[in-house]
Amino acid sequence: MEFRKYFEPKYGPVAPEVEIRPAGSIDFDNLATLRVVISNQDVARYQSQIEHCNVYPELTKIAVEKTTFTYGDNITIPIWIYKPTGEGPHPVLVFFHGGSFMLYSPDYADWVMRYISRFGNAVVISVDYRLAPEVKFPGGLEDSYAAVQWASDHIEELNGDPDRLLVGGESSGGNFAAAVALMARDRKGPKIAKQFLWWPLTDGYPAERTQSELKYGSGDHYLWYDSRVNQFEQYYGDADRRSPYASPLWAEDVSGLPPAVILSGECDPLLDQAVMYAAKLEDAGVNVDYYLGEGMLHAFIFETHGKSFEALNFVVDHL
Fold it and tell me: Does residue 144 have an active-site annotation?
């Protein structure tokens, strides 16, 4: 299958204000410990940065309810519900954090979720889906779909707008968001108004290495990504990685999907996967709004650069 690109990236240098941190390795023999260490480090760093920003006092006004829901064979999933201070009914965004399907939890994205809730006057539901390798494909994805179904079923209790049920995710969570949109269409499930895909992994098993992977995937630009190795085996296991719910880019039919709001950092190995999926959606008649953070790395929205807030405001403006 041939894929075109939504636009042809310049693959430029990292912006001077960006701190380039090398990628860490994942020790599967000590994964539980690694999860705690990495999460604590990143959450503390992001929290320290945002506390020095003028916007921080506004973010503390957002109430967060930590609760659970149960679905299927008595599977219980924790969720964090961010409640805006403005009048409703509100858009309701169900969000899936990233972390290579194996790392992090909602606390990783906390201040960004607060920002969207505060300035987008939105209810945000951040999903603590089950992680690989303990739960392989499609376990975490089904958790994510169930969270959207739960939000749809409880949208009046949330003071939400039933016509503005949104899904979103970043990196591997962006993979979930794109797949959930496909699942909702195919299963005639919840009516999703928009899908927000931030630097999404859309191809779990690329046919060839992309230019962005070749330029930025060595691990010197925060994220190590090499499609030649079985990088996500811990999640995919023996599943067909080119099935549409595993790799949305390989879906034969993406017509009838909700409009997409796609964000990318220019210096991200996953950049080309995002721009190819954007083109695929556009070719099928799906509206795409795209933001490119020039000179930015993978997951740049969690930093406090000017372009981080520019990207966040782009999201808020498209809720």
Answer: no
Q: Where are the alpha helices (DSSP H) in the chain?
A: 31-51, 56-59, 110-120, 139-153, 172-186, 211-216, 233-236, 271-283, 306-317
- Cα 76 from chain centroid (whole Å): 21
At 181, the pLDDT band (50, 70, 90 cuts) reads very high
**Tokens coding 17:** 């204000």
| Residues 69, 76 contacting (CB under 8 angstroms) | yes
- Backbone angle region of 18, left / alpha / beta, with phi > 0 → left and psi within -120 to 50 → alpha: beta
CA–CA distance, 161 with 140 (Å, rounded to integer): 26
Q: Is the pLDDT of residue 31 over 80?
A: yes
> Which entry of 268, 272, 305, 308 is annotated as an active-site residue?
268
What's the CATH class of domain 44-317? alpha beta
SS3 230: coil
SS3 at position 37: helix
Q: Which of 213, 251, 250 is nearest to 229 (CA)?
A: 213
144, 152, 171, 227: which is the annotated catalytic residue? Answer: 171
* Under 8 Å between Cβ of 92 and 155: yes
Catalytic: 268?
A: yes
Identify the band that residue 256 occupies on the pLDDT scale cut at 50, 70 and 90: very high
For residue 277, which of 141, 188, 169 has the smallest C-alpha distance? 169
pLDDT tops 80 at residue 230: no
Catalytic residue, candidates 90, 97, 221, 298: 298
The pTM of this model reads 0.97
Task: Give mean pLDDT, residues 67-72.
Answer: 99
Can you read off the two tokens belonging to residue 24? 């860490």
Domain ranges of the chain: 44-317
DSSP 218: B
